[in-house]
Design brief:
This protein is α+β, with helices and mostly antiparallel strands. It contains 19 helices and 14 strands. Among the domains are: 222 residues, no CATH class; 223 residues, no CATH class; 88 residues, no CATH class. It is 41% helix and 11% strand. The structure holds 2-acetamido-2-deoxy-beta-D-glucopyranose (NAG) (7 copies) and zinc ion (2 copies). One 2-acetamido-2-deoxy-beta-D-glucopyranose binds next to loops. Its main location: membrane. Component of the DSC E3 ubiquitin ligase complex composed of dscA, dscB, dscC and dscD.
């Protein structure tokens, strides 16, 4: 009875997990306030420099330095790279927008209204990056190590975010908010934030980093300049000096002068200090004292002009499309049809002023446009649409799954049918759905929209979990009772072989529930004489006599240990689920090789859900446990989301596609289905050797004619009491071909059964292979009654008792 778990320990476990996973709180010593004031003073100083300086005041080539962290000469950053990188960025702008852009950058024209670009670049773009030959490799010793905060306790061998390979994947999520804070009067410049996820193919295990950059966006021509900001590099204060032209310099200086000032004021008024409001750490905390120093990034992004396709009926390019109207329509749809347009795409040039590498997005003109097209993605609105459609599609698969489950549960309503279903198969399905539920609940943190659709789908998911748990409970109760029954039977078989069956005749009196299994009809195999004359009872007549006797494996009386174990079942389910979920969360941040390995393994284990059923079929020598529409439907429906994440390249979770792994997974499911099918057709043990599985009763024995008919079924139709002349002649006729005719007492029709003559050995009997399928047409019970397979299978769904003599039948 000690199985019931203490719920407090469970709660404790969850809290422990939460504590482990939560970011460590920033330690606040008593002198932090003065440190904080120092930081603020430093920021005011640097803002003053931003305020005072002019275009060209910072130029490493001309030995002009600024008193801003990272821009001083003694910091020894690789600022000589800035010139060539700016040149590359300018080339990119000109290549995409033509000479008008050049004139605009120079400030000789203001006329940029006709660039067909999105004014709001909120959204994401992804693609490949490639290392440019402009850059070089710099060692940590090339930098001024005294500039590193002195509380770094260990020598630095390699910086974080140091791209060492020649290429990799890159994804940029851009957020551009509206409001006075972020933009100027005419929206010529606005502040943006970008979250960059950059993978390095050259590193061990495919390392990748995620960090945040801040910068400015010029909606008039679609360019952006972004930078990281840290203690070693005050990127945001240096941003105007990184711009491509004097015009952009002054625009960004004007904006940053105001926004930085407001940010510092807010920083001053905070109760809890924010050490770095422009931190590049993803969770917004300032970089901890003990973390490795990291490489800084400066990125130049240029949006590509939007391409419109001519609509067929119009035959003209709608070149007068107002981008403002298009964007407004995307964001606040009024139902007007939008012209087909290309998605948000960008080119990128970036460099690290300290680590010295230069990266570019892969695409034309250096790479064929058929292979690489720089960075492509979609605007937030389109992404949200896609996410919503994905969620609705997932809801539909959940719904289908629920329907299959309910149908199966209806079919599996009797104890004997429940006994066949593998508990672990259903448990795996339930864990999968529970995982889906947790994922949906937390997904809105990642997707950030479609909350209603998400939660509705999560509810649907929870609904199927509830159904599955209910089904599990039914199965478990039946199978636990069956197990107890078998154990008692084994334990008592020795005593009952000698003592006469005591309470067989007397109806059971009201008794304690724990003794219920003992009252089940006792096995009579030992006592029954072999040559008892069969009692033929029509199936509809055998019920009334003893209504109080529980049927074997019938409605089980819920015993106390059963309940306690059921409780532990639920807590085990929850623990397992939460455990898997947190492990999965941890694995989302590891190197990509390990992550891919983990997710492939997880999916493989999950998609092995038919294996326990195959195993149970073998061990119990049964088949027909699950409906075919359940098997096929569940396999299909559960492959759909996995296929989506493995095969669709712009899926909502940005998972890396891997068609090879998907093929393996789908093939594995297919192999399991094949195994189930062949078990159904050829017998559940056809692919394993004799003796590997425990002995189980074989309902389809090979009938052999021996001397006294000891293995022959009772009630052969050739017996003299059969007065049907047709049957007589048939029996006589087929006997010569090694067949016998029996009578099925369920449908009262004849059964023609192949029989091996007494002399012949089974190996050289003719037509042995054909008999495998023929043997499936009849079933012989342990009490040697013979029936049609469909007849007895139908019967056994309700009752595990021989229709003729009421002996207990082993489950199918
Ligand atoms: C910026 O410069 C102006 C004068 O040009 C001065 O009045 C203002 O206080 C300065 N702002 C900051 C934050 O230093
Ligand atoms: C640079 O600024 C710091 C304060 O931020 C100041 O202490 C230092 O004297 C300045 N150095 C120069 C060369 O102006
Ligand atoms: C490193 O920086 C410190 C100030 O942060 C400066 O005093 C020192 O000269 C620099 N070292 C080199 C080699 O430039
Ligand atoms: C960056 O990686 C390269 C190649 O592994 C290495 O030589 C260099 O020292 C690293 N740079 C930094 C700053 O860690
Ligand atoms: C840009 O679009 C996003 C997504 O619709 C929106 O949240 C944001 O406010 C927009 N920004 C501007 C400046 O319009
Ligand atoms: C905004 O546009 C108006 C009219 O085009 C112009 O008068 C004004 O100077 C502009 N403001 C800024 C800050 O450029
Ligand atoms: C920066 O802002 C201040 C007011 O906050 C203003 O007086 C000054 O002129 C601005 N500087 C520049 C260069 O725009
Ligand atoms: Zn029949
Ligand atoms: Zn029988």
């Amino acid at each position: 009875m000690e199985v019931r778990r203490d719920p407090r320990s469970f709660l404790f476990f969850i809290i422990l997990l939460l504590i482990i996973n939560s970011p460590e709180p920033q330690s606040q010593n008593f002198h932090t306030r003065s440190q904080y004031d120092d930081v603020l003073d430093h920021e005011w100083d640097e803002l003053g420099i931003l305020n005072r300086t002019r275009y060209g005041d910072f130029d490493a080539g001309k030995d002009k330095w600024l008193n801003i962290s990272g821009l001083r000469e003694q910091d020894r950053f690789a600022w000589d790279l800035l010139g060539p990188v700016q040149q590359r960025a300018t080339e990119q702008v000109k290549g995409l927008l033509g000479t008008t852009a050049d004139a605009f950058l120079d400030g000789t024209t203001d006329d940029t209204g006709q660039f067909p670009i999105y004014r709001n670049v909120s959204g994401y773009v992804q693609g490949e990056w490639v290392r440019s030959s402009l850059g070089r490799v710099r060692k940590p010793s090339d930098l001024n190590t005294t500039a590193i905060p002195e509380n770094t306790p260990f020598p630095v061998f390699e910086y974080d975010r140091n791209l060492t390979g020649s290429g990799g994947r890159l994804r940029i999520h851009i957020t551009e908010l509206e409001g006075r804070m972020q933009t100027d009067e005419n929206r010529t410049v606005s502040e943006i934030t970008a979250r960059v996820i950059i993978g390095d193919r050259g590193s061990i295990g495919g390392n990748w980093w995620e960090f945040v950059l801040n910068g400015v966006h010029f909606p008039q021509f679609g360019g952006s300049v972004l930078t990281t900001t840290s203690e070693r590099f005050a990127g945001i204060f240096a941003l105007p000096h990184l711009q491509l032209s004097p015009r952009l310099y002054s625009a960004s200086q004007e904006l940053l002068n105001r926004t930085i000032q407001e940010t510092i004021e807010r920083q001053t008024n905070r109760v809890y200090p924010i050490w770095n409001p422009w931190s590049s750490a993803v969770d917004g905390t300032s970089e901890g004292m003990l973390t490795n120093p990291h490489c800084e990034f400066v990125l130049f992004l240029q949006e590509h002009p939007v391409q419109f396709q001519a609509r067929k009926e119009q035959q003209t390019l709608p070149d007068d499309i107002d981008m403002n109207w298009l964007e407004h329509e995307l964001r606040f749809p009024t139902g007007s049809s939008l012209p087909p347009h290309s998605s948000l795409s960008m080119s990128m040039v970036g460099f690290s002023p300290d680590c010295g590498f230069v990266v570019e997005s892969k695409g034309p003109p250096n790479y064929p446009p058929s292979e690489y097209v720089h960075l492509v993605g979609s605007k937030t609105e389109e992404f949200n649409d896609r996410a919503r459609h994905g969620i609705v599609a997932f809801a539909i698969t959940l719904f289908a799954q629920l329907l299959f489950l309910i149908k199966q549960m209806k079919e599996t309503a009797t104890p004997s049918t429940r006994n066949r279903v593998s508990f672990y198969t259903i448990a795996m399905l339930a864990v999968g759905d529970g995982f889906g539920f947790l994922a949906l609940v937390f997904l809105h943190i990642f997707i950030g929209t479609s909350q209603l659709a998400l939660y509705t789908t999560a509810f649907l998911s929870l609904f199927s979990v509830v159904f599955e748990l209910r089904f599990l409970m039914d199965i478990w109760t039946v199978q636990a009772t069956e197990q107890i029954r078998q154990e008692r039977q084994q334990a008592s078989s020795a005593t009952q072989a000698t003592t006469p069956t005591p309470n067989q005749a007397s109806p059971p009196t009201a008794s304690s529930p724990t003794s219920a299994p003992a009252e089940l009809p006792l096995p009579v195999t030992a006592a029954r004489p072999v040559d008892t004359t069969p009692i033929i009872i029509a199936p509809d007549q055998d019920d009334p006599p003893e209504p109080t006797t529980p049927t074997p494996g019938g409605t089980p009386t819920a015993t106390t240990p059963a309940r306690a174990e059921l409780g532990s079942l639920y807590s085990r389910y929850c623990l397992l689920l939460i455990g898997i979920f947190f492990i999965t969360l941890q694995f989302t941040t590891v190197r990509s090789t390990a992550r891919a390995f983990y997710f492939n393994t997880l999916c493989f284990l999950y998609l092995s859900f038919w294996c326990p059923q195959i195993y149970r079929n073998i061990m119990r020598n049964c088949r027909k446990a699950l409906r075919w529409d359940f098997v096929l439907g569940q396999s299909l429906v559960r492959l759909v989301p996995i296929t989506y994440f493995y095969a669709v390249s712009n899926n909502v979770l940005f998972s890396q596609t891997d068609v090879r792994a998907l093929t393996v997974l789908a093939g594995w499911v297919w192999v399991q289905i094949l195994a189930l099918v062949s078990q159904d057709i050829l017998g559940s043990r056809f692919f394993i050797r004799e003796g590997w599985a425990p002995p189980a009763y074989d309902y389809h024995p090979l009938l052999r004619e021996d001397e006294e008919g000891a293995t022959m079924p009772i009630g052969s139709a050739q017996a003299p009491d059969d007065d049907d002349p047709m049957s007589m002649s048939k029996a006589g006729e087929s006997k010569g071909k090694g067949k016998k005719v029996f009578d099925c007492s369920i449908c009262t029709q004849d059964i023609e059964v192949p029989v091996i003559a007494s002399g012949a050995s089974s190996e050289n009997a003719p037509g042995m292979s054909g008999m495998i399928l023929q043997r499936r047409t009849y079933m012989v019970t342990p009490c040697r009654h013979i029936f049609h397979t469909p007849c007895l299978e139908g019967w056994m769904r309700y009752r595990l008792q021989c229709p003729n003599c009421r002996e207990i039948l082993p489950p199918l």
